[in-house]
Amino acid sequence: EVTNLIDVSDRLWFNHVVDLEIDDDSHLFASGRILLHNTDSVMCGPIRTVEEGLELQNKLNEFLLQWAVSLNVPAKYAPQLKLEKIFRRMIFKMRIGREGAAKKRYAGTIMWDEDHGAVPEDKQTIKYVGLEVKRSDTSEFVRKLMEQFYEETLIRADPKKAVGIVKRAYFDMLAGRVDTTAIAVPKGVHSDRESP
Is 0.90 surpassed by the pTM of this model? Predict the structure, then answer.
């Protein structure tokens, strides 16, 4: 039904990014002319309480409804945002070679989520998304170092101590006080070159 509303030849659609959400991966629709894929998260802040988050959600959804209606899209197809999590603290990885945060690369401590409600500060854990601490090709040394860094920064709110931990690890590695098996990358190295 929604495909009947979208005319990709209409120049009006070329002035907007249209991002619709579906339950699984991606599909083509509108006679194969539009690729539909799950939406990404929208992050904003600071949000200090669930009430503030819900108020912002309602204001943004009202704006999106008015925007959709102004484009002659029926109200039932207007995009909607949903509050899922509120983070106490977050760190975003920087984009390589450009300003701003990298997409889907962050760590944070959750203070509230829609499934579990409020998370007391003494029970908080770190949620990692797209960072080396979760990658299988990260050495044990780097993984543990990053976990310590994020724990000091996000849970204990002590970035100076976190930087000190990284500096100490760096000098320990340079001085040969770190076991080489802990530094090794746990995956094989492959080459497309043929052996000489």
Answer: no
